[in-house]
Amino acid sequence: MTDASRADTALLLMDLQPGILANYADADYLPRIRRALAAARHAGLPVIWVRVAFRDGYPEVSADNAIFAGIRGSGRRLESTEAAGIHPDLAVQPQDVIVTKRRIGAFAGSDLDVVLRGGNIRHLVLAGVSTSGVVLSTVRLAADLDYRLTVLADGCMDGDAEVHRVLTEKVFPRQATVRTIDDWIGHVAA
Predict the structure, then answer these.
(1) 97 CA to centre of own chain
(2) Each residue's pLDDT tens digit, 119-140
(3) Which of 76, 45, 82 has its CA nearest to residue 58?
(4) What is the DSSP string of 64-133?
(5) All structural domains of the chain
(6) Locate the Isochorismatase-like domain: which residues (predicted)?
(7) What torsion, rounded to 10 degrees, do the Cα atoms 8, 11, 12, 17 define?
(8) What's the rounded Cα separation, in Å, for the pair 52 and 16?
């Protein structure tokens, strides 16, 4: 990756929160994310964290929202809780940006587009949980907004391995470059 192509690239890490990651059993996942994070930092790429969280009382959650209506009143995913923060093993740095979203996709109910435009970011390198949730929603909208996209296949995780495979091997390649973290690290270090 040349310096010119690095200037408009950011690593976007999505929904890597303790309350979400607790639902997945892949002991190698966080170490892989830490490798991608270290490579991005070494290359001088901005790191943007996206988390899903809600205000006390869940004013953003409609009773008609099939995915989030069930958490109303549960205390889960409240922005004031530790479970809604970024996983502590990932060591957010002061220069990183944390974006809070109120829906599945990284752009929905957040100021992500403003942050990206403010930083002249046009290329997003995506990783997150889940592949069929935040990653899929973000790929679709980001492609429609004309962002260049790279999806780190092993930087994404889903509760359904077959859905993950179909998305990373058949769906995402239509709108994004799909790489493994190690392949991307070799590319960004070049």
Answers:
(1) 12
(2) 999 999 999 999 999 999 999 9
(3) 76
(4) T-TTTGGGTTS-TTBTTSGGGS--GGG---TTSEEEEESSSSTTTTSSHHHHHHHTT--EEEEEEE-III
(5) 3-189 (3.40.50.850)
(6) 9-182
(7) -160
(8) 9
Side chain identity, residue 147:
Y
pLDDT digits (tens, 9 = 90+) for 146-162: 999 999 999 999 999 99
Name the packing angle between helices 29-42 and 181-189 (round to 10°). Answer: 10
CA-CA distance, 30 to 33, in Å (whole number)?
5
Confidence (pTM): 0.91
Q: Is the N-terminal amide bond of 74 cis, ω within 30° of 0?
A: no
d(CA 25, CA 2): 36
